[in-house]
Amino acid sequence: MSKKHILLLHTGGTISMKENADTGGVAPGGSNPIAEVMDLPGVDARYTIKEPFQIPSPHMTVENMIALKKEIEASDADGIVITHGTDTLEETAYFLHLVLDTSIPVVLTGAMRSSNEIGADGLPNLIAAVKTAASSDAEGKGVLVVMNETIHSAALVTKTNTGRLDSFKSRDGGPVGTVLKTGPHFFFTPFKTDAFSIQRFDYHIPILKAYAGMDAFLINQLTTCDGVVIEAMGQGNVPPEAAKALISLIQSGIPVVIVSRCGSGIVQPVYAYEGGGAVLKKAGALFADGLNGQKARLKLLAALSAGYRQNLNVIFS
Ligand SMILES: NC(=O)C[C@H](N)C(=O)O
């Protein structure tokens, strides 16, 4: 059998950084240490290696994500691995999950420790990601994230811890698989919706967080936005003054998407008191199931870009 052809796209992040022995600071050096690794032990594949950019992932933009989409669409590889900073890895993974129309494996990975730190996880993560991308078992599963020998769906995974190697978790749905010495082993196939055919992406969609005593001040500044995501309390509730301001945004035609600040669980229009989810829903707020704020924002952006402005209640149902 011929070797699988893997397109490796390096974008930066800690996986490509080194710790300065004198200052302890972690930053990109002159060259990307992970891009120099050509011979991955235990993997039988051939590679095309590209480095479209080398940035810390807090610098990642939707434009960068679109550039990755184009690289993937232009490639004839059997599988794609993207190395990425972990801070926004889930956002790039989820955006690609929403907009790519492909069944080949697309796997993102990164590192919690830079290449010369004790316990550096970049190389083992890269090997596990390539093993996954080279497996036909990974086809048709949407975009995957491989960290710490665990395979996650881009739709479910989030970074849960600032520094631990096991930071990436799929809190509600659970991981979709694990990477063994022999290759990936899947527990189930994650649900994947049709790809959004995006046109433009210059939308202003801020994310707000609800807090006890939240008033209208911040929300009233958002009258020129294309949409707002609010990390509401519990199942999707906000304080009364914040609710009034959100409802007036909705009435002026601005989509308002409700997620929960809990970090786990599904938002539901349960509570019918002032500011409760049932009242917000009745006023036209959109509920984003179990998505976190940063993913709900990308879903709204993709839906607006694909022309679903009048059907957002179908997309967020
Ligand atoms: N572990 C990491 O990659 C974090 C880094 N700040 C980044 O996202 O670029």
Describe the protein's architecture and organization.
The chain is of the alpha/beta class. The strands form four sheets. Strands 4-1-5-6-7-8-11-12 form an eight-stranded mixed beta sheet. The chain has helices at 62-74, 89-99, 122-133, 240-251, 277-282, 293-305, 312-315; strands at residues 4-10, 17-19, 26-28, 45-50, 79-83, 106-109, 143-147, 150-153, 158-159, 168-169, 177-180, 183-186, 207-209, 228-232, 256-260, 286-287. 22% of the residues lie in helices and 20% in strands. The protein is globular and about 60 Å long. Asparagine binds next to loops. The active site is at 14 (o-isoaspartyl threonine intermediate), 14, 86.
Tags for this model:
alpha/beta; Rossmann fold; asparaginase; Asparaginase_C; 2 domains; asparaginase activity; binds asparagine; 317 residues; 4-stranded parallel sheet; single chain
Looking at how many chains there are and whether they match, the oligomeric state comes to single chain
Structural category: alpha/beta
Helix share bin: 10-25%
Ligands, deduplicated: asparagine
Characterize the biggest β-sheet.
Answer: 8 strands, mixed
Summarize the helix and strand pattern as letters: EEEEHEHEHEEEEEEEEHEHEHH
Report Rg. Answer: 20 Å
For this structure, what is the CATH class of the largest domain?
Answer: Alpha Beta
CATH topology annotation of the largest domain: Rossmann fold
CATH architectural type of the largest domain: 3-Layer(aba) Sandwich
Poorly predicted runs are none
How far do the termini sit from each other? Answer: 45 Å
Determine the strand fraction and express it as a percent band.
15-25%
* Count of structural domains: 2
| Mass-distribution shape | globular
Number of helices: 7
Mean pLDDT: 95
The total strand number stands at: 16
Spatial strand order of the main sheet: 4-1-5-6-7-8-11-12
